[in-house]
Amino acid sequence: MRRPTLFYVPLSPPARAALITAKEIGLDLEVKIVDMFSGEHRSEKYRKINPLAKVPALSDDDVYVWDSHAIAIYLVEKYATDDILYPKDILMRTKVNQMLFFEATILFQALYDTFVPIYQQKRKEPTQENINSVHNAYQLLEGFFHDDQKYFCGNHMTLADISIWCTLLSLRFLIPIDEHKYPKIEKWLRLMKTRPTYELNQNGANQHYGFLKACMDGRAFVPAPRTAN
């Protein structure tokens, strides 16, 4: 049986979330870097895999999956040897789903609204509205933590932590997370730093910031990578 193939760009937080999920469950994926600067993602061949022409996307035999959350859930459901990352218990799964939807609709949306105009060189820095939106997301994340939990949904890392982690590592470059305002987030980030996938995530975030900084400085002349959460 062929290995699943993940179509990937390192600087994309959603793509990193999909790859980190695979690595956390010990799945040996084939990783295919998509050359978005040349327009590979808009080719007819790639659109058959992901009609949105974005990354990430997954090919598993005749199954095509897009959206990082859908990919992560699919990988865990099909290949994981336990349900820690995506619990089968209905109450725990609901908590994880809540946080995944929060990441998709609030946190990642705040990143998208802040970063994309800079990619497009319509502005060189975030607006005050962008900053307020991101800090609102930070405040909500801080409030989601209870004193007796290590991760967002309890005492075990889940898919929610992975998705939020990938987005935050990119977002905090532009709008820092103040450890005095958000001590619980900072404590959690220190815990996530101990994961074996930390370097993969941080290196991708560094690439993301490098591209963003080039856009801010007016040095980027290639189209910005498009990512799908």
Question: How would you describe this structure to a colleague?
Answer:
The protein is α+β, with helices and mostly antiparallel strands and 229 residues long. Helices cover 52% and strands 7% of the residues. Strands 2-1-3-4 form a 4-stranded mixed beta sheet, with helices on one face. Helix 1 links the parallel strand 1 and strand 2. It is globular, with a radius of gyration of 17 Å.
What descriptive keywords fit this protein?
single chain; 229 residues; alpha+beta; 8 helices; 4 strands; disordered C terminus
Helix content: 40-55%
Number of strands: 4
Largest sheet geometry = 4 strands, mixed
Mean pLDDT: 93
* Order of neighbouring strands in the sheet with most strands: 2-1-3-4
Question: Would you summarize the structure shown here?
Answer:
By secondary structure, this protein is of the alpha+beta class. The chain is 52% helix and 7% strand. The chain has helices at residues 13-24, 44-47, 68-79, 90-119, 128-144, 159-174, 183-192, 198-216, and strands spanning 5-8, 30-33, 57-60, 63-66.
Topology:
Layout: E1 5-8, H1 13-24, E2 30-33, H2 44-47, E3 57-60, E4 63-66, H3 68-79, H4 90-119, H5 128-144, H6 159-174, H7 183-192, H8 198-216
Parallel strand pairs: 1-2
Antiparallel strand pairs: 1-3, 3-4
